[in-house]
Write a structure and sequence with these properties.
Length: 214
């Protein structure tokens, strides 16, 4: 049986080393490389052609969500498992939207991680119950939305409020402690939900609808 080729993308060396040691003990796993950030992950996937990537979300240079998007633009076969400490709704949905087939928190039992790798490799999905419950809550919210438009998430509202004060992407990134690529994603979602094409229109529509106040 051919081993599953795995790439570990995480900005903490201790985490990478621990995962590498743990996974290497499984006879059907082969860790082919490690990446220290999103940019490194994009390059390593192109070089090493792994079957499965264990992707952290919060990393320097480029976050995990943007890395997955760039990788999928060039390689539709690689499968992603998000392995993170963050269970925030926005992270979950951004990660799944970017193509993750499994979403696990780092405190998950090792058996869950092994199962996720094997399931995702077979083309299946696996999401922890604590994450699945958040998915169900969001789907419930979606079903109750009115035809007037989609609701903005809490994070999108924070971004929109900062936009209304004239903050640039770099300033929003620093204020909310998120990557600039994540800021761009939130702004794109805001434009789509409000049905606008630029920042001025977004702020104007938000004020008209009472979503924000100056």
């Amino acid at each position: 049986m051919e081993a599953i080729k795995i790439l570990i993308a995480d900005d903490h060396p201790v985490v990478r080393e621990g995962l590498n040691a743990m996974l290497s003990r499984e006879v059907d796993f082969k860790v082919v490389g490690e990446a220290k950030d999103g940019v490194d992950a994009v390059n390593k996937v192109a070089e090493l052609r792994p079957d499965v990537v264990l992707m952290d979300l919060r990393m320097p240079e480029m976050d995990g969500v943007e890395a997955m998007r760039q990788i999928r633009a060039n390689d539709t076969q690689v499968r992603f498992i998000i392995l993170t400490t963050y269970s925030d709704d926005d992270y979950i949905f951004s990660g799944i939207e970017a193509g993750a087939r499994a979403y696990l928190l780092k405190d998950a039992p090792r058996e869950d991680l092994f199962k996720a790798i094997r399931s995702v490799y077979r083309g299946e999905s696996l999401i922890q119950p604590v994450v699945a419950s958040k998915l169900l809550d969001r789907f419930s919210q979606l079903s109750r939305r009115t035809p007037s438009g989609e609701e903005l998430s809490e994070r999108e509202l924070e971004v929109l409020c900062l936009m209304s004060k004239g903050a640039a992407n770099k300033e929003i990134s620093a204020e909310l402690k998120i990557a600039q690529s994540t800021v761009k994603t939130h702004i794109t979602n805001i434009f789509q939900k409000l049905g606008v094409n630029d920042r001025t229109e977004a702020v104007t529509q938000a004020l008209k609808r009472g979503i924000i106040r100056l």
